[in-house]
Amino acid sequence: MSVRVPTTYLFTRxxxxxxxxxxxxxxxxxxxxxxxxxxxxDSFYGQLGYHLGWLDAHFVPVQHNTGxxxxxxxxxxxxxxxxxxxTTSKREEKTHLDRALPAAVAIELxxxxxxxxxxxxxxxxxxxxxxTAWAVFGIPQAINLGDGLASLSRLALFTLxxxxxxxxxxxxxGYCFDRATLTVIEGQHMDICFETQEQVxxxxxxxxxxxKTAALLACAAExxxxxxxxxxxxxxxxxxxxxxxxxxxxxxxxxxxxxxTQAESGKxxxxxxxxxxxxxxxxxxxxxxxxxxxxxxxxxxxxQEAPRSEQVGQVLSILEHTRSREYCQHFLTEHCxxxxxxxxxxxxxxxxxxxxxxxxxxxxxxYVSQELWPMKAGDRAAVxxxxxxxxxxxxxxxxxxx
Length: 402
Hints:
1% strand; 402 residues; globular; mainly alpha
């Protein structure tokens, strides 16, 4: 019998451990590579602390929303699921996680590098309910800050050697890490291109989201698995789990990018419509809109002038008529089912630590798949019928993933 894991517990269990490890590692790297007292470097690391939620804009310590730490949490859970059978530590003590912590820190620093550049490229002035780094410190400094986080992430990964991890395994993890980094950057390039590209196909969209979001979650799960075991079927299963979870997570983000309130997302409501981003809801609407609405959407998404509020309202109205929100919720659910299928291939040893970790991975699926807005019962059959062509594309994409 499965036990339901509360979401709040899932995302708070490792927060203190990960935040302490992040702050400790950043401080260590700073002292190691820049031991001289240089005021300009104080502001660089102050900006870093601001973005990570440790400091305010004047570099005074604060307690702010630091995000869910989804990627490092996924890495640690995959590590426990794959390798907990080799330890007798109690989970509350968390000492068994020491071997994997540098990789978890690295993946979170890398993720924050992408967030800083993403905020600049999208023109987002708010993240986690406060001004973004570029809005406070300017674009040049924010670009440099993002670059610094990318470098720090790679240096953090090498501290696995200090934990006794074999050099060959560290090299393999480094390859996985760098491959995922390039893939994420490729996905972001595609996403930016789509904003001005007149026609975006569903296969192109799927390629973009698997690169931009799924790749890094798959990397986190694979790295945790490789640190925990050497069984390739288990490693592949956890990679696939992360890949499908990441795809679902991006579709969830697409939903929030249009319909979430500022309190729910910490961003501008309907921000993706104002930026004319061709996310899955929009692509679905273009495909299923009436001829008149189809032509209007094509014009709107190719115009040069900034969108007006009434135009954004018209887009939202068309999305409602085409049931695009309900369709995306169904699409998200399909990927969550595939993630659950992948998780079934992970062996469950007779060790409570591993069993708890596998249950927690299942809870991550529950978190992503929960309906943000209830779907009307009468809409489900129509939405499922519309999903068939996309599922065929998905099957082809999945076969080529590895």
